[in-house]
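=== RUN LOG ===
request id: a7f3
mode: sequence -> structure
chains: 1
length: 233
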Amino acid sequence: MTNKIENYFFKKNFIDIFNKERSIFINSIFDNCDIGLPNNIEDLPIIKNIEFNECVFLFCTFGPIILDNIKFKNIRFENYGIFWSPFLKNVIIDGKISSFRINKNIFLSDKNPELQKKANEFRQHFYKKIDWAIDISRAKFSNFDYSGIPGELFIRDPENQILIKKDKFFSLSLLDDKFKEKFDYVTMCLENFLDSDDYDIVIPVPLSKPKKIRQPILEGLLELRKQGFAEDN
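=== RESULT ===
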């Protein structure tokens, strides 16, 4: 990261809530931390200028929150990490990352539809004002799923992270049965995408998985590109 580091933490175990600016956390454990969780979308907490390197997050709750100029490198989440309606500006994902999801819904959104509506409106305005949201070009995912981030705001590796838009791919009927059987994981991703209200999706090859798992996914994505359903770069 280019900002001056004012705080440096090594092999520290942070419990509960943290919000420190201009910090680097190395080999740190975050156990049951609440990172975000505001009730006022108009006054969201902001975490900025922080790098997490070789860190572990145990049963943490993320969001809603603004993440600004944040880097995650070689991160492990206990079980499955979920970010609840984060708003990303210049966030970098680098190295090996265990399974996680970026969710546009707030936590328990069905119990607070008005707050979810405000979050959706805030998201629309937020992403219109930034140059890029997230850089995954050097990430080696185990599994990555997301919603609510425009594909054009990704920095990605076009060879292994494929962008698909609904104006080109709008129905599973565009694919024959042979494709669906051979590339079942890609087909599942496409089905979920079509069921969403997102205009586009970035599907990454899980590079941290064994070759026998990641290779069919790569082949399926490249076949989509060959058939004209995915962007060329």
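=== NOTES ===
Residues 3-155 form one domain.
The longest strand covers residues 65-77.
=== END ===
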